[in-house]
Each structure stands twice: as structure tokens, then as C-alpha cells.
Description:
single chain, 441 residues, alpha/beta, Alkaline Phosphatase, subunit A, 2 domains, three-stranded antiparallel sheet, 15 helices, 40% helix
Amino acid sequence: MNLQLERRRFLQGALATGAGAVAMPTILADQAGAAGGADDTILLTITLAGGNDGLNTLGPFEDGTYRGARGALAQNVGNAHSAADGLWWHPSLRRLATRFRRGEVAVVQGVGDPLKDRSHFSNLARWQTGLPDGRISGTGWLGRWLDEASLGQFGGVAIGGRGVPLHLRGASSSVTDLPFNGNGLYGSDRSAARDQLMFRAIERMGRPSSDRSLWTNRVGELTSFAVETARGVAPAYAQGFPEDRFLHSMVLSARLLNLNLGTRVLNVWQSGYDTHDSQIGGSSGVGEHADLLSNLDIGIDSFFSTLSPSIADRVVVLIYSEFGRRVEANGSRGTDHGTSNHVFFVGRRVRGGLYGDRPPLTRLDDRGDLRVTTDFRSVYATAVDSWLGGNSSSVLGRQYGTIDLFHSASRTVEGDLASRARRIRERRTENRNDRLSLLSR
Length: 441
């Protein structure tokens, strides 16, 4: 019987029930200490499910070919944010554009699968598997990294209670799926006297005894482990959350990292990017895509502002989608499934800027899509080798080229203080602009 698998299943069932605020239990503290050190890097992946329109996220908004292909869907530069090399950030990405100007956002251009599959299901499966030649397996690229890293219970975490995504699944590693709503985590609330008696009894059951059968000892250990673990995670749920599910998940991710449980990789979903229609206009007036990007922008900012300063330098966010959209707008004020796209890395140790070859709008592939100029597995190789400190050739099944995207951990105190002062000035300017915008409505 696989005790690690039993623990994971029992723990996931217990975590699906709620919240409270208590000190970290001994078992959890031991796991966190064994899981890694204070300098270990952390990767948060954000899956933009549905196929994000990369051309309108960061695109050549002044380019005549772009404007001719997009028609009414084309973004105007009047309220967009200048990036570099003729590219502009979508108006909804003001905060991300500010981070880009600070040198904290790396944009890898033309990323995709050379197979050019437009299916959500098979393409996402290949992206999350990360194996050569389009092979799909039951394990994912980060799951295989977790197998080699041999971390504790919280080494890998999926946020949202929708199951562990393929890219976090390994052959032997343990990944915990934390629920979106944490009210009433099993064992965290001991306000009632009868509950105190019950949980004390459960904790005693966790101590093996020769007077009990092997099965009874096993059940007692698992139950006690679940109670203690739930109590340890409860502080992440103790305060209020934004109503939006994605923003909620981003804040929860940061709070979980602040608990220092040894988490190295975690994933958050943002759904809704399959914008075949109402990409602009619609019930919101600005369109579905603008609303999604606005939430993404706020979510990234909320995540980093919630993180403890002692952790922030160790965290990088990787943002990807299973494919981009077609260059030409369709007849429903939207865009259809395409191919290559941008992948974004966000963090204080990111070497900001544009990377990779931008697919030319005047030389599309044989189906009229943007050409793939960077294999998505090169992006993964970069994350595994250069950020997580793993071996990408064993994780991905072969060697892929990497990109020099990250600064080393050694930074001068003067440089760090200057960076913080600049962020404070920018935040004050952003807050002032927000107030002026509200007053003008």
C-alpha cells in the first residue's frame, strides 16, 4: 500500500472543507524544513485557458497589415501602453506594462507547437506534457521535475479545487489540490468543546500502537496527518478575498507561499479566452478580452503585493496559453483558433525585454496563421534549467535550447534599494491616475 498516495488522497478530501487560523503543526513544520532552503526558487504558472489572443495582448497596433486584418477588432495606440520594437500593450495591461518598463517582464515571441494543432484538448495536453514529437503521456513537465526534486507534500500545489493539472502530475511525486473556498477546514476549528475532545482523540490515534492492527494504525496516522495539515494551511484562508475567482486564487497562492511550506511550483487557471465572439463590445462595453486582461493585470499585481518581501525575489510567474488566435478577425467580432503566441515571465529576477523572433504578419504559414519561431519546450527548458535548477533533458526527453532570461540571486544592496524606491514612486503615480480616472467618470 502506497502511504504517500494514501496521504495525498486523504489530505485532498480534508482540505476541500474549509478554514481557520492557527500555528503550523509539528508535522507540517518538519515537512517544510525538509522540503528546501530559503534560497529555493519558486515558479507559479498561470494557464490562460481557451487560447489567448496574443496579437491584441501585445501587438503592433500601428502596423497597417495588423489593422487591415483586424478591422474593428484592432487596438488603438491612444490608450495602449508602449512596449518596444513597435509593440504596444493592451490598454487593460497598465500594471504589466509598468513592470515591463522596470525590466521585470520577459516576452518570448512566436512560441508554439510545430505541429500547429488548433484543438484545445490535444494541444493543451501536448503543452502540459512537454515531450518531443507531440507525444502525450500521463505525466507533465513540472510533474517529472517534481519526481526528480523529491519534495514534501506541498512541493507542488494546484490552486482552485479543480484537480491537479497534467503539467503538475508526476509518476511518484505528491501534489496537493487546494480548494478555492477554505471555510471549515477539517480540524482547524476547535471552538466547540466536543470538537476539542474529538480532535485530541484523532491526534492520539496518529501515534502507532502495538495494541492495534496495521490497518487501524494506518487509518489513525492518515487521519491525524490530515487534521494537522489542514490546521497548517488554514492561515492562508483566514482573511477576506476578492470576489473574482482568479483574483481570489492569486491572493491565495501568495498567502500559501508566505507560510513557507516548501512549495516550489504551483498553478492557477484563468478561463474564458476562447473569444470567438464578443471579444470587443458585448455586455461590458469593452469586451470579454479586455475584461480578462484587466483581471490578469490586477491578479499579477495582487499576487506580488501579497507576497512577503523575503520571498518575492525567489518567485517567477510563467503565463501561457495553449495557442494564439488567427490574424484575421472573424465575422462575429472575435477571433478563431490560431497557432503561435507570446509566453510571459514576470518577476524581479527576470531579464526584461523581448526574446525570440517575432512572426511576420506579411509571411504567414500555409494556413494563414502566424509562424511558430520558438518551440514551447525551449521555454520549459529555460524554466527547468535556469530557474528551478533541474535537468531539462531528462524532464523533456531531449535537449532543447534555452534563453538567458534570469538574473543571478546576487544583487547589490544599492541596486535593490533603488529598485524599491522606483516601485514606490510608480505605485504613487498609479494610485493618483486611478483616482483621477474615477473622478472623470
